[in-house]
Specification:
Layout lengths: L1 H4 L1 E4 L8 E5 L8 E2 L5 E5 L5 E5 L10 E2 L8 H4 L2 H6 L31 E3 L8 E3 L5 E2 L5
Parallel strand pairs: 3-6
Antiparallel strand pairs: 1-2, 4-5, 7-8, 8-9
């Protein structure tokens, strides 16, 4: 329970990003994950967790947060979900090979030397296919 529901905790008195361990915040741990989340959270100097809406959240929409930072592409980010939180993310970003047009995981194709190599599907072990020359690579080779 602690492993899948805790959050990295930081000592804010020692500056930004000084991790000191993990904490279990009961209300925060009830929030579901989405890589396209609608909230942001922060920890205060007083040791409180504050969650704020990042956009208008219509009545009935699930309130979500990010369990994993957004700065890495699917190829690096997605394997963390089953390993650390025991689920596979199926949010709009994770199910789109272009990652909502960001092309964050796009690789240079060995065939045409263009940055056009994308996963052919959202499966973690998907074949990667060049959108320019149709060259294919296995996930393991990528």
């Amino acid at each position: 329970i602690f492993r899948t529901n805790s959050v990295k905790w930081e000592d804010k008195s020692k500056g930004l990003c000084h991790p000191i361990g993990h904490a279990l915040c009961p209300l925060f741990s009830m929030m579901c994950h989405s890589c396209v989340n609608n909230t942001r959270y922060t920890q205060t100097m007083a040791g409180e967790m504050i969650v704020r809406a990042a956009k208008h959240i219509p009545k009935g929409e699930e309130i979500t947060t990010q369990y994993r930072g957004p700065n890495t592409g699917n190829i690096l980010r997605r394997p963390d979900f089953p390993a650390n939180w025991l689920f596979s993310c199926d949010c709009p970003r994770c199910t789109d090979p272009t990652e909502l047009g960001t092309m964050a995981s796009t690789m240079i194709c060995a065939g045409c030397q263009e940055p056009c190599l994308l996963p052919a599907s959202s499966a973690l072990d998907s074949v990667w296919r060049c959108t320019n020359c149709q060259t294919e690579e296995t996930h393991k080779n990528v």
